[in-house]
Amino acid sequence: QPLGVGQAVALGPDQSHYLFSVMRLGLNAEVALFNGRDGEWRGVIEQALKRCGIARCTDQTRPQIVPPDLWLLFAPIKKARTDFIVEKAVEMGAARILPVQTRFTNERIREDKLRAHAVEAAEQCEATYVPPVEDLIPLDKLLATWNPTRRILWADEGLQGRAALLQAAPGPWAILIGPEGGFSPEERTKLRALPCVNPISLGPRILRADTAAVAALTLWQTTLGDWV
Ligand code: SAM
Question: How far is CA 99 from CA 109, 148, 170, 176, 227, in A?
Answer without folding.
Answer: 9, 19, 24, 10, 25
